[in-house]
Amino acid sequence: NELVDFNATNVDVAIRVGRGTWAGLRADFLYRSHDTPICAPGFLEANRIERPEDMLRVERLAPNDPWWAGWLAAAGVDTVPPPQRRGIELDSQLQEASAVQGGYGIAMMTPILWRTELDAGRLVQPFETLFQPGTAHYLVNRETRVGVRKIERFREWLHAELAKDR
Question: In whole angstroms, what is the distance from residue 142 CA to residue 148 CA?
């Protein structure tokens, strides 16, 4: 989750979330950022989650993350920002997915990254996806490395894979 410093590492490419403008980097748009609450089917049933307001009473992973406030506001929940509360905060969506699959709560996650689990029913998305304004995922590399074969082939492969989900 740390920002890659291309000048201090041998890293060729990275994926960044933002507005697509980073000095000295080519930013290649991948997909618009979006997130939505995702949980295990058993957690959904046990907590009788039916309306966006229900998110205020259930165990949310990273409950004070601004993504929750943004999603709740977009979903029309009056209590925005939500009251601060204690909760589990993990380092990545991979860790959150593991906790969610274990029934430990509901997390704000990016559905495109969890398509297989959602399609198989191991995870559920109780509400429609709401896009976060102004940010997207970008493949970035140094401007001085544009045209390097391995970077360009990786870029082409990544776009082809993403095209399968569009």
Answer: 10
- Name 14's bridge partners: 140
CB 113 within 8 A of CB 93: yes
- Cβ atoms 85, 64 nearer than 8 A: yes
| Token pair recorded at residue 124 | 């559920």
Q: What pLDDT is recorded for position 83?
A: 66
pLDDT tens by residue, 67-122: 888 888 888 887 766 667 777 777 787 889 899 999 999 999 988 889 899 999 99
**Helix (H) or strand (E) run with residue 37 in it:** strand 25-38
**Rg (alpha carbons) of the chain, rounded to whole number:** 18
Is the pLDDT assigned to residue 146 strictly greater than 80? yes
Contacts of 158 (CB under 8 A, 6+ apart): 30, 139
Mean pLDDT over the full length of the chain = 89
Contact 35, 132 (CB under 8 A): yes
Contacts of 156 (CB under 8 A, 6+ apart): none
